[in-house]
Please model this.
Amino acid sequence: MVIMGIETSCDETAVAVLQNGKDVLADLVSSQVDLHKKYGGVVPELACRRHIEVIGPLVQEAVEKSGWPLSQLDAISVTVGPGLIGALLVGVSFGKSLSYALKIPLLPVHHLEGHIAAAFIEHPRVVFPAVALVVSGGHTNLYHLSQKGHYRLLGKTIDDAAGEALDKGARMLGLGYPGGPVIDRLAEKGDPDKIPFPRPYRFSGNYDFSFSGLKTALMQVVSRNGRDLGWDDSCYSDVAAGYQTAIVECLVEKTALAVEKEKAKGIILVGGVAANTLLRRRIKEAGGRLGVETYIPSARYCTDNGAMIAMAGVLHYERGHFAPIDVSPDPNIELI
Ligand code: KG4
Ligand code: ZN
Model:
């Protein structure tokens, strides 16, 4: 079975071709980072227009790279939400056209379901039940999975997503966009205990997260010291390390709590922020301490990509869950 995955929910146009749910024949991502950089965040209208320009040639290139003829595809898998409506429309319209022209099923994928499925590309034999921490620029959700494709939401952020907190934090520090990778790099050389940051919502008694207070704490550090008042590189590194560690510890503690209380046997860590060096290390350590398996995709399958959408599509295909030809994207769709 060969499935093409198409992802256009935010600022990456991504297309992949996946064979038998394990062999990635092609996996292309056209990033829009340069387009949005000067605005410090994604501009929806610009994202949408760039998707339109890029998607046709990218599909063509993916077909060529995969060596698999377009006419021999078994299904098209596409992100139907959540995300930016204009951006989603491009992928869904393109996917629909392909599925109609080729007379093959269209598989409707929830973006977070895609992120979770990214773990199954390199780890086909996950032990269940598992707890999945999905951390991206738009979401911070903790799920219980009784098996592949069966999700129960345990908790989520009540304000900012972890990736958003990192991106906005980096912006406050004048470090550019996207902030996650910059903070990751800087923090490696920093002392996380030099500048104390709070651990919001740590004792909330549930599985929810909150990161907006951390942003305020960072703002206070910045205004107390003055961003341009002679900070050297080590100051930036220490602030980045302290801020990042606070976010990571909140994420890991709630995940560990969920593993214990829900009697999970595995931890799945996915989403763009799962590319973070410290988070990956701490989740692995927590898994070791709790005696459960950890499943973390390679960094390229953490950030938005087409392979994860194709992989999630496999689960829909197996259940015969196909989208009707008049399916519309839903920017606010929930994965319950
Ligand atoms: O999953 P993703 O590619 O897109 C969304 O669905 O949002 O996640 C993007 C997020 C951004 O906030 C970005 O800063 C963050 O992932 N990110 C990282 C790293 N790489 C990407 N955060 C921390 N460390 C990284 N290495
Ligand atoms: Zn994503």
